Amino acid sequence: MRLLKIYLRFFFRRIVVILYLLLFVLLYFKLNNEYFDVGFFEIQNPFYNFFSSFNSFFYAVVIFVIFAVTTTFTEIILTIVNSKYQDRKEKENSAIHADINSKIFKHLLETKELDTDISFVQQHKVFYSADYPRLVFINRLRRILLLTKGEINTRCIRIFHLLNSEDLLNTYLISPYLRHKLLALRIIGDFKLDMFSNKLKNLIYDKNDIIASEAMYAYAKIAVDTDFSFVIDRNQPISKLDFYNFVQIAKQYKNIDYLALINSKNPSISALGLRFAGLHYVKSAKGEIFKRINHPDEFVCQEAQYAYLRMVEELDAVILLSRFDAFNKENQLKILSLLGKYLGNQLVLNLFNSIIERSEFDIKSAALNILMQNNIVASMRFRNHPDPLIKKAFSQLTEF
After folding, report:
1. Number of DSSP helices (H) and strands (E) in the chain, helices first
2. C-alpha atoms less than 13 angstroms from C-alpha of 248 in its C-beta half-sphere
3. CB burial class (10 A; 0-12, 13-18, 19+) of residue 180?
4. Structural domain harbouring 338
5. Are residues 336 and 299 part of one domain?
6. Segment among 25-29, 106-110, 254-258 with least mean pLDDT
7. Which of 91, 137, 234, 314 suits a disulfide with 342, CB 3.0-4.6 Å?
8. Is the alpha carbon torsion for 21, 25, 26, 27 positive or negative?
């Protein structure tokens, strides 16, 4: 019944507009006839003499003018009526919000027992039987849930389950209104309602990107053991918002298929796999990460460099000796900072010597500065170097 009401509301305006247009089409063909045919009856047309006096062109113009004037007048009347209705509705909704907010906060702060939660939910159901107050109540619980931890967080989940709102969420998932679907998806994801997992899997492939995005986010929250293969199977780019949402919730996830994500032909998915690998220090993926530090796609290149820097070790100096220039300047400085503590290793020392001799002045200076701080003896070989830039950098650092 709830779904039927939603669809009737959704199609009502469209049906009215279509009927309104059909009425004028019908009048166009009938107003210049002497009689109106109604089934087996004929009714005298009182406007026949007026409309029959026009030729076809002027008849069409007159009908169009009548249609325009009538439509304008109807829109003015409907705007006034709708404005008054919306004002009244807004006041009612504001009162509902204020009442529910005060009751929820008061209840959460004053009582803790299960019996009081059950009684609180029952009172709410008796006082508010319509869907809108129930959704306001659930959405307020959801927001408190996201902002709290510990006992308050647990009680929000308990109160939500006492509401038994699964039917309402099921209806909203198949509602024709986008706002209904998005609200249902957010509630399902935030309360981790795993009974909706199969429906979320289907919505991941929805043609509407907004719904698909919210469904992916909700599913990832629920399926904490996911390997994120659903992102690959969908075979569509993910937005930057999706990217950062997944990164935020996947910090503790253990079953991610890093290599499958990294090897995806879709740059945004490959970048996600690179970020996950760097976030979780997946050294088994280090080779695949390094292959992409100079990738033509800027997003993939950025994430590959970020991931590789998270796992830089002194043995990487051999590889970096030939590929140091592939990193952007900011990451080059980070590499120098990370490897500076390993300057007792000859491989790392060779890397620093090479960088000082062939890089730009600011990179030379940074490398030489780190070398001076960690291995002053090794830095002395650059004191009287034949390259005037190196000699200048050494002089500036020692004078400082």
Report:
1. 22, 2
2. 9
3. buried
4. 323-400
5. no
6. 25-29
7. 314
8. positive
Going by the DSSP 8-state scheme, the letter that residue 400 receives in this structure is -
**Is position 192 within any domain?**
no
Mean pLDDT of 126-133: 87
- pLDDT tens, position by position, 201-232: 999 999 999 999 999 999 999 999 999 999 99
* Tokens 């099921």, located at residue: 170
293 and 331 fall within a common domain: no
| 179 confidence band (pLDDT: 50, 70, 90) | very high
For the chain, the domain total comes to 2
C-alpha distance across the termini of the chain, in Å: 80
Q: Note whether 301 and 355 are same-domain residues.
A: no
**Domain match, 366 and 306 both:** no
- Extract the tokens encoding 270: 């490959």
**Which range scores top for mean pLDDT: 275-284, 307-316, 348-357?**
275-284
* 290 and 365, same domain (yes or no): no
Q: List C-alpha distances in Å: 183 to 102, 136, 187.
A: 22, 11, 6
Domain shared by 334 and 381, yes or no: yes
- Final residue of a domain: which of 258, 277, 311? 311
Query: Is the same domain home to 296 and 333?
Result: no
Q: Read off the pTM.
A: 0.79
Q: Which long-range contacts (CB under 8 A, 24 or more apart) does 241-249 make?
A: 241/213, 242/213, 242/216, 242/217, 243/268, 243/271, 243/272, 243/275, 245/217, 245/220, 246/216, 246/217, 246/220, 246/272, 247/272, 247/275, 247/276, 247/279, 249/217, 249/220, 249/221
| 384 lies in some domain | yes
Nearest to 143 by CA among 187, 90, 200: 187
Contacts of 65 (CB under 8 A, 6+ apart): none
| Phi then psi dihedrals of residue 41, to 5 deg | -110, 155
Residue 134 domain-assigned? no
